[in-house]
Design a protein that fits this description.
Layout lengths: L1 E5 L5 H10 E5 L6 H8 L3 E7 L6 H4 L7 E5 L8 H6 L3 E3 L6 H16 L2 H9 L2 H5 L12 E5 L3 H12 L3 E5 L10 E3 L2 H7 L2 E4 L13 H7 L4 E4 L8 H10 L4 E4 L10 H5 L3 E3 L8 H20 L6 E2 L2
Parallel strand pairs: 1-2, 1-3, 3-4, 4-5, 6-7, 6-9, 7-8, 9-10, 10-11, 11-12
Antiparallel strand pairs: 5-13
Helix pairs in contact: 1-13, 5-8, 9-10
The structure holds 2-keto-D-gluconic acid.
2-keto-D-gluconic acid (8YV) binds next to loops.
Length: 313
Amino acid sequence: MTDILMIAPMHPVCMEEIARLGTVHRLWAAEDRAAFLREVGPKVEIVATDGHWGCPPALMAELPALKLISSYGVGYDNINVPAANARSVRVTNTPDVLNDAMAEITVGLMIALARRIPEAEAYTRRGDWAAKGNFPLTAELTGATAGIVGLGRIGKEIARRLVAMKMEVVYHGRSEQPGQPYRYFASLTEMAKAVDWLVVITPGGPETRRLVNAEVLAALGPEGRLVNVSRGAVVDEAALVEALRSGALGGAALDVFEDEPRPHPDLLTMPNTVLSPHQGSATVRTRAAMGQLVVDNIKAHLAGKPLLTEVTG
Ligand code: 8YV
């Protein structure tokens, strides 16, 4: 039986299927992690992990027989892919199957922020409607401009839906993509000046760390709103908190945070934020499809067949 190290619990069906493919060692359940790794580390051939935990270098170093890291998530910023490949360890992720769920939550967060749905809901439940009268008037997406930071597979699905919401869509990325119907901005700050919404869906990692900084937030301005559904580290969270507090930025809808699962405490009490616990892809349908891809990549590896969704670095 092949030894498989599972870093954190996964979709139940995925866990059951993986258990049929080899001997599963559950890292999160180990009482003495060091002793556990001393015992099982040398025989582990496959790591099953997710986008949050990845496979840290110190862990990889304890797995000399490692051949495959199959990750449950599209983002692989917590896996050093070049270092893995240099050791002949291959890495897979779960792209595409989560595009629709990600795009849905993005639009949902935007509507929630513009129409103040969480606040209005609390207002209704508290009985304030009868006690204080109608809830204040809100904003809408219609007619506004959204600047997408990262027009990749998910970004394009978001763009399609925002066009359907009668928004104008523009984008920023490392390079202009031929054949796109949306205007390209080479400068993120220039784009932030030109839009009402900044929608961040670029991959995380060192290249995009704190890409959305104080300057970009200032350019977005007091009427501007930020949406982040990528990785918390892409936004300078301290600068974001300051901009929201001072009114330099209008509002923010966030599914991701610098220190998950602990969002910056000030964000929790601000009225101009809508917060969500990193659940972009967390639907029954999408998580099942992601889990299936994790399993299918492991099966392909075991059968000596081409991996379905390999990432290389
Ligand atoms: C998961 C994600 O939350 O796909 C990603 O990159 O961030 C999410 O789907 C993550 O993999 C943790 O399970």
